[in-house]
């Protein structure tokens, strides 16, 4: 899955993208992921993850945003992190990353819902998720410990008809 709109493209991340992802993560969150965690997330779940890339000066892709999704229990995927470079925010990249992440889960057809947590004070993220169609499932005042409340939001995927195999019959 790779789409192009203007100069931005959305695609599955590679190992070469990890340093950029870590910089964006560090700029966005107080508790940044250690490199080894990002590396293992990629090893385990890269096909569910998406990066937004622009052409860099050296001809290489420059990652300007990322969305990390992992497979969870009970036919649900978890969008565990989403961030855009501070200098690229407000340009639609967050929405693009979210749309592509949801599309991946939709295309895989192996989950019914996408879950995530959001700080109720984080209005930019909250607005984005609400606009998209996520709904509140629960509020946990201590989700990540003392003074770390989170809302758990859920997006219901539209179940497609049973996928057709190579010879045109379901499940073949
Ligand atoms: C949340 C985040 C990913 C949004 O990315 P973005 O590229 O700036 O968002 P977009 O330009 O695609 O905006 C999409 C929608 O998000 C909401 N939004 C974005 N910035 C906003 C702001 N400053 N204030 C209020 N709503 C905002 C709006 O609903 C917007 O839709 P609109 O343009 O039609 O009003 C980005 O602000 C970010 O990286 N924040 C830090 C990390 C973070 O909080 N991640 C979410 C953790 S749950």
Task: Provide a descriptive summary of the structure in words.
- There is one protein chain.
- A hairpin with a 2-residue loop joins strand 1 (3-5) and strand 2 (8-11).
- The chain is 28% helix and 30% strand.
- An 8-stranded mixed sheet has the order 1-2-3-4-5-6-8-7, with helices on both faces.
- It is an alpha+beta fold and 172 residues long.
- It is globular, with a radius of gyration of 17 Å.
- The chain has helices at 18-28, 35-45, 93-108, 123-132; strands at residues 3-5, 8-11, 50-55, 61-71, 76-84, 113-118, 135-140, 150-156.
- The protein has one domain (3-156): Gcn5-related N-acetyltransferase (GNAT) (Aminopeptidase), CATH 3.40.630.
- It contains 4 helices and 8 strands, in the order ββααβββαβαββ.
- The structure holds coenzyme A (COA).
- The site of coenzyme A has 19 residues, from strand 5, helix 3 and helix 4.
- Coenzyme A binds at residues 28, 82-84, 89-95, 118, 122-125, 127-128, 131.
Q: What's the short story on this structure?
A:
It is built from four helices and eight strands.
Strand and helix map with partners:
Blueprint: E1 3-5, E2 8-11, H1 18-28, H2 35-45, E3 50-55, E4 61-71, E5 76-84, H3 93-108, E6 113-118, H4 123-132, E7 135-140, E8 150-156
Parallel strand pairs: 5-6
Antiparallel strand pairs: 1-2, 2-3, 3-4, 4-5, 6-8, 7-8
Q: What structural category arises from helix and sheet content?
A: alpha+beta
How would you write the strand order of the largest sheet? Answer: 1-2-3-4-5-6-8-7
Tell me the fraction of residues in β-strands, as a range: 25-35%
The tally of beta strands, per DSSP, is 8
* CATH fold group: Aminopeptidase
H/E order of the elements? EEHHEEEHEHEE
**Overall average residue pLDDT:** 90
Termini separation comes to 24 Å
- Which stretches are low in confidence, meaning pLDDT under 50 for 5 or more residues running? 161-172
CATH architecture: 3-Layer(aba) Sandwich
Globally, the shape reads globular
When the domains are counted, the total is: 1
Which value, in Å, is the CA radius of gyration? 17 Å
What is the makeup of the main sheet? 8 strands, mixed
Can you give the helix content as a percent range?
A: 25-40%
Bound molecules: coenzyme A
The fourth-level CATH homologous superfamily is: Gcn5-related N-acetyltransferase (GNAT)
Q: Quaternary state, please?
A: single chain
Tally of helical runs:
4
Q: Please identify the top-level CATH class.
A: Alpha Beta
């Amino acid at each position: 899955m790779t789409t192009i709109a203007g100069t931005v493209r959305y695609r599955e991340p590679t190992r070469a993208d990890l340093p950029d992802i870590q910089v964006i993560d560090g700029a966005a969150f107080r508790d940044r992921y250690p490199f080894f965690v990002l590396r293992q997330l990629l090893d385990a779940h890269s096909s569910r993850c998406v990066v937004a890339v622009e052409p860099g000066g050296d001809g290489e892709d420059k990652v300007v945003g990322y969305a990390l999704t992992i497979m969870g229990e009970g036919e649900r995927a978890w969008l565990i992190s989403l961030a855009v470079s501070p200098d690229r925010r407000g340009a639609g990249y967050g929405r693009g990353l979210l749309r592509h992440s949801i599309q991946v889960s939709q295309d895989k057809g192996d989950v019914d819902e996408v879950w995530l947590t959001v700080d109720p004070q984080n209005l930019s993220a909250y607005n984005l998720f609400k606009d998209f169609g996520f709904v509140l499932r629960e509020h946990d005042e201590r989700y990540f410990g003392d003074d770390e409340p989170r809302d758990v939001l859920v997006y219901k995927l539209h179940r497609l008809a049973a996928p057709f195999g190579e010879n045109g019959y379901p499940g073949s």
